[in-house]
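Suppose you are handed a protein chain with no further information: no name, no annotation, nothing but its sequence. What can you learn? This example shows the usual starting point.
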Amino acid sequence: MTVSASGFRRAKRLASGRVLVTCAVLGTLALGLSACGHKKQRPQLDLAASKVTTIGVNAYLWRASLETLSFMPLLQTDSNGGVIVTDWYANPKNPGERVKVTVSILDQDLRADALRVAASRQVSQNGQWVDAPVQAATVQKLEDVILTRARDLRRQTIKG
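A reasonable first move is to predict its three-dimensional structure. Written in structure tokens, the prediction is:
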């Protein structure tokens, strides 16, 4: 099989046309991809972190716990370990009953499972303090109050 000079020139033009089209397509793709790679600096919204640890535990949970228990006398506070222990508190409206609360903050994140509340209750019988059961709803309500206050504190930080 022999190829004439005119056929050879025609094949050469087709090949160079294909190369030109291929280069044009690759160039367009490269430009498009390079445009994606350039990131403009977008203004960042400065949100209050859920993990604030100027102390050993989450600062929102710590502060909310202290505020929630502020009506009770504090026996022990350890911000590094995240423990707050109150002394016995008797409500003046019900002096025959007293309560003691321990709050443990278990994590540096503002999460519901980072908070544990334990309560002890005693009632007066014949002048003696006797242990009495604490309703689970009481502990749950106290946890909810602390978590709600911690979230409010975080929201206030976001608003500035």
